[in-house]
Amino acid sequence: MAASSGKTSGAGRAFVWVIGVALLLAGGLSGAWYYLADQLETQVTRVIAGARVQGAEIGCAGRSVFGYPFRLGVRCDAVTLEMPGDARGQGLRATAGALRTAAQIYRPNRVVAELDSPLLVDAQQMAPLDIRWQLTQASASFWTEGMDRFALVADQPVVALAQPAAGRLPLFEAGRFEAHARRRDGDLDIAVSSADGRVVAPDAPSLPVFDAAADLTLTGAADWLAGRIDGDTLGEALAGREGALRSLKLDFGEASAELSGDFAVAADGLVSGDFELAVADPQRIAALVGEAMPQFAPIAQSVASAIGFVARQENGRDIVALTLRDGNLSAGVIPLGQVPAIR
After folding, report:
1. Which of 84, 121, 216, 221 is deepest in the core (most CB within 10 A)?
2. Residue 2 sits in which domain range?
């Protein structure tokens, strides 16, 4: 009986130790969570204050930190961003629905977020937009140099004009939109795609449903992920930069066009580069481009005509080499027209 009693006593002590260790771990985890939550709240407050110093107002109504015990995130009932205009008319006001961000407590450098529709954007020198979706999710990874990766996925996005007196006027809708960016050494990789896109504006040309995608690298632009972008416009940001366009594709089903090649942007926004264009049904593509973007109709028609003379056949598509020098586009010795500068 004594031996049995000793075994029972030993098992009881072991059980007490297990309970004690579990309580210590739970207490340590709770303490760590509340400490990190306080640090997160402080950091968010600091970011908002820093933006205010720079002239921007960030609003986060009903802000709270949540996720105990294994996640840590910030929740807002609604978000706003307001940037005052300058002499060049760059003012902006944006409002959106509820925002939820979270990171796993064991992987705090990767943050995921959801934003509720709608997003209302009112910027100077452009019509106000009303953007809605069924579900939008984003994720970002951070490392020693700031943001390392970013991804955004939106299901069923619809872009419309905001007309306070007459309601929304839809312009474009898609089945899915994705945008991805990553830091690769000092360069920036960007991939954007839109599936099942439709132009639905009342006065727009009747285009078939299409897929569009772009995949490129900008040399020396990795710091864009940290918000360090030179200039106030796309043209100013790209001025003096080089890049590689792996694919710029527009697919209407039987008719499609894909452009690839290396390029450089001059200080005045004019582009130079050597490209390869692969087209299925070039005359149909030229007609669609002319309908959607009349300013590019002459170039599109010139390219379609040149393809018949200088293209080669490959996998059912016509392949033609294009040369762009300071905005002047040509196929071999055949001039095709002027490509406008990036502004």
Report:
1. 221
2. 1-126
